[in-house]
Each structure stands twice: as C-alpha cells, then as structure tokens.
Amino acid sequence: MGGVSATANPVANSSGSVTNQAIQVLQGPYITNTYGGGIQCQGPTLNFTPYVTGAVSAAKPYEPYFNDPVYDISDLDEDGRIDNPGDIIFEKRTRTGQKDNYNLSVGFSATWSRPLDRKLQDQCKEAASTQIALQRQLTANKRLDFELARLKTCGNLMKEGILFTPGTEMSKLCADVTVMNKNAIAPHRHSIPQ
User: DSSP E strands: which ranges in 17-167?
Assistant: First the structure.
C-alpha cells in the first residue's frame, strides 16, 4: 500500500502596532489691548490651527514569502512507524502577509472665544476712547507749551537784537517769529552837528 503524506503546518503569526496621535488646541489668553492709565481690554479671539500628521510602519527585512518544509511521513511497510522521519520531501512557498502601512492626516481645528459680559466690553471700549482722547489732549498741551516757550524766547532775543545768522540751520527755529510794536529802544547815541 502507498504511504500517506500529510503536512502538519501549525503556524501562528501575530503582529501589530498601535499609534495614538492627538491634536491639541491651545486657546491661550485673549488678545489684550493696553491703552495706558491701567486700561486693558480683551477682545474675542479666533484660533485657527492647521495640522499634518503621518505614520509609517514597516517590518525589516521585508519578506513576502517563506519556504515551509513538507516532511516525509510515509509508512510503506505499515508497521505504524514513519519510514524516513525528518526527511523533507519539498518546500512549499507560503505568503507571510507582511505589508507596510502608511497613514497621512491633514486638517485644521478652529475655536472662537468671546467674552460673555458685553457690558464690560462696552465700558472698556468707552474707557479706552476716553484715555486716547486724554492722551491726545495732553500731547496737544505739551506742543502748545513748547511753541509758546519758543515764541517768547525768540521774541525776547529779537528785542535785544540777538539773532541766529540768517540761512544757518538754527535760524529756522525763530524764522516764523515776528516782534510787533516794540516799546523799548536800545540805548544808543547820535552825534549832532554844531
């Protein structure tokens, strides 16, 4: 009788990987505008966060197939014992199922943050407008003080006959100052013929 050939091929392959990826959106503080005088206002904020994530997993070396031996288990004399134990009849080509994995994620996350108390926002904006107007007025006052001091100094010097040489750089400081109705006459002498 002919022998029976059977292949016992218990194969248990297990492989796997886990990749946890997360996108974290940090809102941060509200945008704060400072106007001086201790006035700070926070406005609504839009956060736009684009992201790109990717992952690659691969087994090295890459082996798509392996040779699985088929053993001779024939019992030609039917004595219940394998005639040629350990002999390999041939090798069977078997797929491993090995493959590379690629992952690419593209997207964005957006959040809109807005203060809940609109009255406080309006009051802060009003205080900011007042502070800006106050700063403009203070600047105008300082400019007026400067111009009046320049006018007075240039006028007094002109009365005394002290001037920058015309055409020089510094002569421009008093170029637009005019002394009118001068009441004082500088001391001087005239010779009278006899």
Answer: 32-36, 39-42, 45-57, 65-71, 88-95, 101-113
**Tokens at 189, concatenated:** 């002498």
Q: What angle do CA 23, 26, 31 make, to 5 degrees?
A: 150
Identity of the residue numbered 62: Y
More confidently predicted of 145 and 50: 145
Query: Tens digit of pLDDT for each residue in 51-83?
Result: 888 888 887 888 888 899 998 888 888 888 888
Buried/exposed code over 30-69 (b: 16+ C-beta within 10 A; e: otherwise): eeeeebeeebebeeeeeeeeeeeeeeeeeeeeeeeeeeee
pLDDT number for residue 42: 79
> Residue 38: left if φ>0, alpha if ψ -120 to 50, beta else—which one?
left
Angle at 103 between CA 100 and CA 104, to 5 degrees: 145
